[in-house]
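Example 3.2
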Amino acid sequence: MKIAFPLGDDQIHAVLHQQRGARPTMVNVHEDENTSVEAGLTNLNQFGGRLIELVHSGERLVTFHLAGQKYSFDPNRIFSDAGIEDTLKKQSHYSPAAHAAIKTFAGQYLEYFALDREPAIVALHNTVDGIFSIESFVPSGNLGSNAAAAHVSPQRSKFDFFYVTDRRFYDYLAERDFNVVLQDNDHVTDDGSMSVYFARKKIPYINIEAEMSHLQNQIEMVRVAREMLAKLLPDAVKP
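Structure, written as tokens:
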């Protein structure tokens, strides 16, 4: 099912894939991160659930027009006022009207899929720049201040890692020697991302990052996340 949301003078679409019930809920917001979608669909087709995929330009950024002006933004930076302002300034230019249009879209997206009422959210992403990795979150990394803890596995690619907001998830994954970051929910920078938004809503959040070429690794990670939810938060995988 394809759902259209107005955004300025344009539309942005969300494609809903669903099999045998609506849980767990998986989301993908960067349209160029195709391996993550393939991994999510593989799991969904085997076990059920839903995957919500944003479809816009085929690129990472969303572009739209408003009152004769063109704007671009990162769709994983729109879930707070601070995030919207920052991503507009970084990716194009800022105006109050563009801010209001993006904020309206973000609210409609969250409400249409009732994401604020989910027991857990699973986000699917791919690392694409050869820089962003589990090492970004160790104390010496550029994002280390956002992490309460980081487990680095010598057996796994540094580009394949989980990013979670719940200590139970961190402990489960670290015990199984996956790369995993626990967000510092009290001190994390408000960048408008889903991880910050859902942490503030007290909704457990799991981000599954994998290198674009690591499909089998990401399929395994999605399966492990489902098994973890079934054990620790069973309502998140029930229809």
